[in-house]
């Protein structure tokens, strides 16, 4: 079984940290993750630096990352301005994003869901002109911090519109970490009728400790791409309580013990997370990381 792990710590993780990491430290983190064998890294966002100051150095970082033929660097791009900025850097892939729930979308990107599509269409057009692949994120697919449960039809509608716009993959985001395996399987079965599973990624937040169980449920149903974050760094600043993406180490340990080889060295990921802990001045929540460091 081949599992693709997309490391989102430098983006989803750092966007939610109080401490702003220096660009050179972010480069060191990327180098550590690459040395560990990670090949897909979401490294930053070309969003408004007023909204996410932690990633204001997006362009500088992109230019300082080691150019390696087998490593894919991705960044979030919210609008034309973001696409123009990203387009002047060596970032390989872009990701557009919106929410399945109206209120979260407005809080996160200051627009209604319907008004977001023309903005994304512009991004897609600029990406097409430059031959850049674009992933689509749908947030709050299992629940919204403002609206509660999100109807499946609403999630499917947003996915369908993103696919029409030309994204190659959709990452389903449990932004506030409310899902449990039953909900994951229910939603994936509904999605599967319209979208091939090869085009779906699982993006779980571990806010309530169910991230790993949810990832396993997604794998059982046939999803082969998971977004994880080193040490469990992460969250969403516009989703109160959304702390901690599913930790890369926790997923790696599970996969390893289940006999699934990812080609990623767990110990080297832990070493990199330890560096991030020092820089962020807090212990990161990954249980596997903490157990590794205690040995
Ligand atoms: P806005 O204020 O509505 O934008 O923000 P605007 O078009 O009215 O522009 C206002 C100002 O921002 C202008 O500058 C623009 O130039 C500037 P001013 O004239 O005031 O000096 N601006 C920009 N500057 C740099 N880069 C840009 C850009 N765009 C406008 N791209 C906007 C709209 C989308 C920009 C804003 O709401 C924003 O940046 N939001 C980002 C929110 C964000 O990054 N959230 C976290 C990522 S999503 C997530 O974490 C979920 C995910 O992980 C999946 C999951 O877990 O569910 C993906
Ligand atoms: Mg996220």
Automatic annotation (TrEMBL):
InterPro entries: AIPM/Hcit_synth_CS, Aldolase_TIM, HMGL, PYR_CT. The keyword Transcription does not apply. The keyword Transferase applies. Residues 3-270 form the Pyruvate carboxyltransferase domain. GO terms for molecular function: lyase activity. Keywords: Lyase, Metal-binding, Transferase. PROSITE patterns: AIPM_HOMOCIT_SYNTH_1, PYR_CT. PANTHER family: HYDROXYMETHYLGLUTARYL-COA LYASE. Belongs to the HMG-CoA lyase family. Belongs to the alpha-IPM synthase/homocitrate synthase family. This is Hydroxymethylglutaryl-CoA lyase.
